[in-house]
Amino acid sequence: MSFPLLTATAAVPAIGAVATAAVPAAQRAAAKWTALLFSLATLVLSAVALVRFDPDGGQYQLTESHDWIKDFGVRYELGVDGIGVVLVALTALLIPFIVLAGWHDPDRLETPSGGDSAAGRRWRPTQGFFALILMVEAMVVMSFQATDVFLFYIFFEAMLIPMYFLIGGFGDGAGGRAEGAAANARSYAAVKFLLYNLVGGLIMLAAVVGLFVVTNEDLGSGTFSLQQIAEARSAGTLSIATTTERLLFLGFFFAFAVKAPLWPLHTWLPGAMGESTAPVAVLITAVVDKVGTFAMLRFCLQLFPEASKWATPVILVLAVISILYGALVAVAQKDIKRLIAYASISHFGFIILGIFAMTSQGQGGATLYMVNHGISTAALMLVAGFLISRRGSRLIADFGGVQKVAPVLAGTFLVGGLATLSLPGLAPFISEFLVLVGTFSRYPALGVVATVGIVLAALYVLVLYQRTMTGPVKAEVRGMPDLRVRELAVVTPLIALLIFLGIYPKPVADIVNPAVDHTLSVVDKKDPAPDHPATDAGWFRYSPKGDHAPGGDK
Amino acid sequence: MSSAPSVHSLWMTAAGPRDKIPTPHIEYGQLSPVLIVVGAAVLGILVEAFLPRRQRYAAQLFVSVVSLAAAFAAVIALAAGDYGTSKAHVAAMGAIAVDGPALFLQGTILLVSLVAVFTFAERRLDPQTHGNRVDSFAAQPAAVPGGEAEEAAVRAGFTSTEVFPLLLFAVAGMLVFPAANDLLTLFVALEVFSLPLYILCALARRHRLLSQESAVKYFLLGAFSSAFLLFGIALLYGYAGTVTYSGIADVVDGQVSRVDPALAQTMGNDALLLIGGAMVLVGLLFKVGAVPFHMWTPDVYQGAPTPVTGFMAAATKVAAFGALLRLLYVVLPGLRWDWRPVLWGVAILTMLGGAVVAITQTDVKRLLAYSSIAHAGFILAGVIATNKDGVSSVLFYLAAYSFVTLGAFAVVTLVRDAGGEATQLSKWAGLGRRSPLVAAVFAVFLLAFAGIPLTSGFAGKFAVFKAAAEGGAGPLVVVGVIASAVAAFFYIRVIVLMFFNEPKADGPTVAVPSALTTSAIGIGVAVTLVLGVAPQYFLDLASQAGVFVR
Fold first, then answer.
1. Which residues of B touch A222 (CB under 8 A)?
2. I need a labelling partner for A52 at 20 to 30 A (CA). Which of A66, A78, A474, B247 fits?
């Protein structure tokens, strides 16, 4: 038996979480270093997986398969396709930066207010904070790797719990309110996050049960294995009635739309991101939410292709509303973190638009978008977090003229912001462009409307920069220190990556595209016939295996 | 009353020779779990009568633990001897069934009771009074609360060691209840386990008036429901001419054509069957705590001593659902087109009612009471499935649920202030800061109640929902999912309270328990996680045990 690489990738952060939690209360620094080391080890493992993944190989690679709960037809089945392996790598890449950026976040909880010293010794926020982050990482990685619907569901749901404690337990104390009011707002945000996602998950549970019943009827024994279901469907032994398929699709999609989040199910995100610390906000939007869009690609489209096509018009309209609504509300925000949250809603609209446009550019662009949005939001949000922790306020109006005092901070903030508004040359531009092209080739009207989102993005990012960084230096901002070494270590690699992927996205695109083509073949959609055959060569010199397109040199 | 005699049977029997009455044939080996527990209970009474007071506690604890463990071993031996599957049959002249479901439920009840004994015996939580370690039970239950006699009893250091034999009697009744194979045995078993529980509820050391009130409420409503059950049994006898399960089932199925002449007016009358069946169901649904027969649950759960509440919530539910399953699947399967719609309604009401009302609760014990009502609704969804998976999923759910409940109530006994247990939810604020371990353990139990994956609650919920969906009760699954979402809200609220709220200055402290309560809680956590992560073995066990004997 070969080395279970995927299991190890998920197990290392889980072990790291336990190890971090077990560090004695007094040795806070040791806990931080433990967490960082384990997250780096995970990064190494995911890099190995990325290298060993063969883009031209089978659909699922590095697979592992064991019986788990036979009565429920549940198998411990792992496997990654191009999309999964890239997202695992993204997760593993971001976590060390999140840990590093959050280095001092739990410190302010270390002296419990009003508690006796014995209670203080047992209450270990530092250990808890980093252990929870690693726990979330382990669960997210598992859900990217699971090829068994039930296994996926378990981690999809279970990750809510550590996430919930991260949101509710650790704030940045920068809301401009008394600690009591801030704690209330925080636990409100945490509960809202949990309830929204739990309701989504429970509705998905009903659909999961339904899937079991359907497979049990046709195959004799219920199964959740994606591969088995796909095989049975293509062999014709499994047929799902149209109405049933649509209901099941809706059950799954609802959960993913809450997680992604899609308008009108998005309202938990601004609160959760606003009240939590910046690294946790990055964890939510750049890592956890990706599971939602990823699951749409892997589960909604592949399990229920017919129903996906049936629901496409409505979903596309909702996605476009998300894009415009998120961007418009972002323009009006007074709070930096909430602004970024609404910007994320807009970006998730783009991702979902790309997925359901059902063209290879659209879906390939959407997958790239997941990666790029993760990196660009992380850069912007983490720098915003550094900014907020310096001033102790999240309000845009409290800043002004920062670029004169802390030029490096302002510069990195600008790069993150420009990436968010998809400036050409930075990574998100390519993905956004592909999504729009992919949408336009099939739904021109929606493509046009969605483009307005880019204009609005320029508005909210540049206005944010103008109000906080330029203008006269405000009194409270004076003397603000520039980025420290630790903070530079967080920001520099992210910006380098944004520029690199902006200029040369081929490495990621090459891995992702075969998987996207496979998904499209399942939904039985072909790209619309091009007006000019020469463009059929694909983009970035990629074309599907065995398909010698004219004009494309492989 | 197995065969219908001829017209002249009445005087023929009267004139018959006396020695024709057969000696009852009792399979002692197969009934040994029940016999061991009953014997131990009697022994416990002798201990109470003859041993000096200071030796009783150790002796009672020893007798209880050893007998429950021995009875459990007997259940295992019977199961290993294939009495659960191929050799399943009806013992004790048709009174008791020895089959898979019975053995599975008996094993569960015995394990639960064993853990419950640990919480009963805990003597380190209350501060010492007059140099004596005391437990959760009144010094002298017969004394008037706050009176001189009570004060004298407390000063003398009396403790109520009679709770152990009472517990054992209740366990004996519960062992028979799901195995009863005729309606009279069912009724006797019900009374045998109910009466000790009524008394146990009244024995709290603190808040004695509340405790006594809860006992009276439980007794009155319980007696009322027993009356329903008994009346239903009488009507069913009128309908079938017999009280054995298989006999009634045969008449329901129309396999008996001969009519008992004494019952010529009534036999086969569907009105009697429907009314009688409904009344028996009412009696059982009362014990299960299903809406609209749930009114007693919150008051009794709140007033009873917390160890008793935990025992009652876990073990009674197992026994009562076992009896309900057997009645519906063995006696009334022919009638399922009549009872299924009714139970659909009851299940929906129970799930939603329990979950919605729980939101407004401000007391931990009442909150858990309403949550137990909601869970009864989930289990009913599995009962309604009427397939093999229905039985095994309910068995699994009961095993999973009972340990979570027991553990949760054991944690409640730890959180105390000057007035005893601090069950007011507002007092739990900030518990996570003061004692993270206890709060984390309670959070695990709450998450299991809420059905979060990787806990036993999720595996159980999935099993019953799967069975219900297969049995054609898809809408019930959707309602169940919605109720779960509502229920999740109040479980989460408690977690918020414990972890995210600032502790109050005069908040409760967490008592350091002895090894007894620690092990009870530890077992609860272990079972919760094991059944959540690796439930396969237990699911196999439950599905092997999923066939009733008739």
1. 466
2. A66
- Do A46 and A89 meet the contact criterion of CB atoms below 8 Å apart? yes
Using alpha carbons, select from A285, A287, A286 the residue that is nearest to residue A271.
A285
Of B463, B485, B535, the CB nearest to A202: B485
Torsion angle defined by CA atoms of residues A234, A235, A238 and A240, in that order, rounded to the nearest 10 degrees: 40
Residue A388 domain-assigned (yes or no): yes
Partner-chain residue, chosen from A158, A195, A206, that has the shortest CB–CB distance to B477: A206
- Is A114 in CB contact (< 8 Å) with chain B? yes
From B485, B496, B540, residue closest to A168, measured CB to CB: B496
Judge whether A477 and A402 are in contact, CB under 8 Å.
yes
Q: Do A69 and B535 touch (CB under 8 A)?
A: yes
In this structure, are residues B181 and B322 in contact, taking their beta carbons and an 8 Å threshold? no
User: Please, which residues bridge with residue A65 across strands?
Assistant: A77
**What residues of A are in contact with residue B536 (Cβ under 8 Å)?**
67-71
For residues A224 and A149, give the distance between their C-alpha atoms in angstroms, rounded to a whole number.
5
> Rounded distance, CA A146 to CA B395, Å?
30
Nearest by Cα to A192 from B492, B429, B355: B492
For A151-174, b where at least 16 C-beta lie within 10 A, e where not — what string?
bbbbbbbbbbbbbbbbbbbbbbbb
Q: Enumerate the residues of chain A whose CB falls inside 8 A of the CB of residue B452.
A: 157-158, 160-161
Answer whether residue A276 is part of any domain.
no
Query: Per-residue DSSP letters for A415-476?
Result: HHHHHHTT-TTSHHHHHHHHHHHHHHHH-HHHHHHHHHHHHHHHHHHHHHHHHHHSSSPPTT
ipTM (interface pTM): 0.80
Residue A199 belongs to a domain? no
Examine residue A454 and state whether it is found in any structural domain, yes or no. Answer: yes
Go through B244-282 and write b for each residue having 16 or more CB atoms within 10 A of its CB, e for each that does not. Answer: bbbbbbbbbeeebeeebeebeebbbeeebbebbbebbbb
Burial pattern B339-357, b for ≥16 Cβ within 10 A else e, equals bbeebbebbbbbbbbbbbb
> Which residues constitute the domain of residue A464?
304-528
Of B433, B477, B493, the CB nearest to A209: B477
> Which pTM value belongs to this model?
0.86
Residue A71 has a CB neighbour count (10 Å cut-off) of 22
Contact at 8 Å (CB) between A134 and A38?
yes
How far is residue A134 CA from its own chain's centroid? 16
Chain B residues close to A119, C-beta within 8 Å: 433-435, 503
Q: What is the pLDDT along chain B (550 residues), one digit of tens a residue?
A: 444 444 444 444 444 555 666 777 888 888 999 999 999 999 999 999 998 888 888 999 999 999 999 999 999 999 988 887 788 888 878 889 888 899 999 999 999 999 999 999 888 877 777 777 777 888 788 888 888 888 888 888 788 888 999 999 999 999 999 999 999 999 999 999 999 999 999 988 888 888 999 999 999 999 999 999 999 999 999 888 888 988 888 888 888 767 777 777 777 788 888 999 999 999 999 999 898 888 899 999 999 999 999 999 999 999 999 999 999 988 888 787 888 889 999 999 999 999 999 988 889 999 999 999 999 999 999 998 888 888 999 999 999 999 999 999 999 988 888 777 888 888 888 888 788 888 889 999 999 998 888 899 999 998 999 899 888 888 889 899 889 988 888 888 888 888 877 777 777 888 888 888 899 999 999 999 999 888 888 888 888 888 888 7
Looking at the structure of chain A, the number of domains it has is 1
Residues in contact with B322: Cβ distance below 8 Å, sequence separation at least 6, in sequence order: B101, B102, B105, B177, B178, B179, B398
Is the bond preceding B292 in cis, omega lying within 30 degrees of 0? Answer: yes
CB atoms within 10 A of CB A73: 23
Is residue A375 within 8 Å of A427, Cβ to Cβ?
Answer: yes
Asked if A199 has any chain B CB less than 8 Å from its own CB, the reply is: yes
